[in-house]
Amino acid sequence: MGRLGPTRLPIRSIPGSLYPGPYWLRVQITVCLQLTCSVYICTRIYFYCSQAVVIDNTVYLSGVLGLDPSTNKLVDGNTVAQAKQAFINMKNILEAANSSYDNVVKATVLLADINDFAEVNKIYKQYFKEPYPARTAYQVAKLPLDAKIEIEAIAVVGEIVDHSS
């Protein structure tokens, strides 16, 4: 039997978490980076959204920034540095949802400067393999925390079975 409603990524009891209650009642986004099987570092940024929502076999990721979990700030450097960190953060969120880059079906890349697209595309190809997911890229007026890039995605949860053969 399928789920009756949306569920949030389970955070469970994370060392250092200020809000041990149900995830969907939290008033901040929490980016959890898995360091080992049982140790997590949580970065708290004060936005009013979920970092990801899982409904049935689909995970919807909110925009992911290039935040360094140890400083809770954007990584130093240009768009390329922030993109690299955003993709690392996205990988960890996907894994927490029992998904991966191979399961992403749609990605949206928001850029402060569309002229950075070619450089970001080189990094994008390090994480996504053929067949590539559908993708949209936009230049936007301003991103949270004055970030240079934000990436959101929709992915399938669990194993994808290829019925093409």
Q: Say which CATH homologous superfamily of one domain is assigned.
A: RutC-like
Instruction: List the quaternary state of the chains.
Output: single chain
Question: How many separate helices?
Answer: 2
State the shape. globular
State the total count of DSSP E strands. 10
Low-pLDDT sequence parts:
1-44
* Largest sheet geometry: 6 strands, mixed
C-alpha end-to-end distance: 29 Å
Strand order of the largest sheet: 1-4-5-10-8-9
Helix content: 10-25%
DSSP strand content: 25-35%
CATH topology of one domain: 60s Ribosomal Protein L30, Chain: A
| Class derived from helix and strand content | alpha+beta
CATH architecture of one domain, by name, is 2-Layer Sandwich
**CATH top level class name of one domain:** Alpha Beta
Average pLDDT works out at 77
Order of helices and strands: EEEEEEEHEHEE
What's the structural blueprint in terms of helices and strands?
Layout: E1 7-8, E2 29-34, E3 40-45, E4 52-55, E5 58-64, E6 67-68, E7 73-74, H1 79-96, E8 104-111, H2 117-127, E9 134-139, E10 149-156
Parallel strand pairs: 8-9
Antiparallel strand pairs: 1-4, 2-3, 4-5, 5-10, 6-7, 8-10
Helix pairs in contact: 1-2
